[in-house]
Every structure is written in C-alpha cells, then in structure tokens.
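My current task is to audit a protein record that another person submitted. Alongside the sequence sits a line of tokens, each denoting a local backbone shape. Please read both lines and tell me whether the tokens look consistent with the sequence. Do not assume that whoever made the record got everything right. Thanks in advance; the entry in question is below.
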Amino acid sequence: MTGFRLQQAALTVSGRPVLHDLDLNIRSGERVALLGESGAGKTTLLRALREQQTSQVAWCPQQPGLVPVLSVFHNLYMGRLDHYATAYNLLNLIRPTPARRRDIAELANRLGLGERLWTPVEQLSGGQQSRVNLGRALYQQRPVFIGDEPVSAIDERQGDDLLALVCEQHETVVLALHNVEQALTHCNRIIGIRDGRVAFDRPSDQLTSSDIKPLYPSDVS
C-alpha cells in the first residue's frame, strides 16, 4: 500500500484546529502538489499523511536538521541508518566502504554536490544544504516521497531538475510547493488550501496559473 486515505473533521496543532472537513484519497502513482499561502496548513497535512505509513515514506522536512560538522557524504548516508546494523553504521562513519562511497557519490553528482562530498555541511550555502536535505530523503529509497518545500531555497532550473529526479525515483509523490509553475509541471494533481479548508482538488492539466492565483490574496504582484 502506498496510497493514503484521510477523512477527518479537523487536523489540529497544539489543540488548535488548522484544517477542517478533510476528505482526501491519494492513490498510488499520483504526484500531488499542495498549494496555498504560508500558514495555510500544508505542513500539518503532510505530517498527517506521513504518520499513516512512516515506514514507506521518504520524508523531506522544510527544516533540514543536518549535522553541521559532518560531511555531505555522512549526512546523505544518515538517510539509510535504519537499513544497517549499528556496527556497519559506525564503520561507515570512520571508514566508508567502497559500496557506500560509490552509491552516495553517484547521488551527490546528481544533486550537483559531487565536488563537495567530503565538505562539512556547515561550509555549504543555504541552497547546497537544501540539496543535501533532499538527497538524504532520496537515499532512503522508499516508494513514497513527501516533501515540505524541498526546493524553495534552490534556483528554479536546479529545482526543476531535482523535482524531476524525485518523481523519477518514487512511486507516489506529495509535495508542498511555493512555485506554481513547478507544481503544474511536475505534478498531475493540485490540492489548493485556503482559509483552513481544501479550496479545490483537480488534475493539473485542468488548471492554469490564473486559476490558482486566488489562493494567494495577499500577493499584490
């Protein structure tokens, strides 16, 4: 099972209702974008979905939670700590095996971080750290990818490349995005959230940027 069913009167944060009257069914194979203003409840919804199938979900939170003093290699490797025994993980912390060097180097190259593989992440730019965060989720190699603004700190061209990589490697994808064009390009279903409720839920090929604009009433541009 890699789909989700969410039917709740409300989702709460610290006892406060954030989203109301939810009735969502996300099927295996869908690529879903959640759109809406900051604070609309996208993160709350993503977490509720993740909690249904934690073992199946590669989770990419908005706040990376990287270990600053460790290298790109080691932060990427942490995505699969639960796949290996403690002794094997300690070995790779001290002297990485050829197999792990090889597969993580390949991933780092796809992330555009091949030349920074052994650089401590505290020495990277914000955009590079975001790529490490996304790469750590990719390295989990799970069928479902759930990401909370995974490319918001990355320039649009690289963001497009990375979203394509996410969709290529995962059976089901659910993303909170801030870039409407990226949502329309990479996802086949758009869920718009406004005023604590689902404003619309439609296939992306039935929507335009103009249809989505009412989700952002505070955007005066």
